Amino acid sequence: MTDKIGEKYINTDNEELNNICDECKEEDESVTQNLILTGFKLCKSCRVSKTIFPL
């Protein structure tokens, strides 16, 4: 659901912020942090492995 406040649209669905990694499907607090920083839902360990081995 989106709410219009002024001229900005705010997404009120929290399905993206569920702290579950897209790669390993484990729950980790760093998933939301990496989603904000990089745009990908990856935990710390998956982010490091994707950085070292980008296949």
Structure description:
The protein is of the alpha+beta class and 55 residues long. It has two helices and two strands. It has a two-stranded antiparallel sheet. Strand 1 and strand 2 form a beta hairpin. The chain is elongated. The mean pLDDT is 83.
- Helix vs. strand class: alpha+beta
How helix-rich are the residues, as a percent range?
Answer: 25-40%
Residue ranges: pLDDT <50 for 5 or more in a row? none
Sheet having the most strands? 2 strands, antiparallel
Mean pLDDT: 83
Instruction: Report the end-to-end length measured between terminal Cα atoms.
Output: 35 Å
The tally of structural domains comes to 1
- Strand line-up in the sheet with most strands: 1-2
Order of helices and strands: EEHH
Task: Let me know the number of strands.
Answer: 2
- What is the alpha-carbon Rg in Å? 14 Å
Q: Globular, elongated, flat, extended or rod-shaped: what is the shape? A: elongated
Counted by DSSP, the helix tally is 2
Measured by DSSP, the beta-strand proportion falls in 5-15%
Features of the shown structure:
55 residues; 2 strands; single chain; 2 helices; alpha+beta; two-stranded antiparallel ribbon
Concise account of the structure shown:
This protein is of the alpha+beta class and 55 residues long. 33% of the residues lie in helices and 15% in strands. The chain has one domain (17-55).
Summarize the helices and strands and which ones pair or pack.
Elements: E1 2-5, E2 8-11, H1 30-38, H2 44-52
Antiparallel strand pairs: 1-2
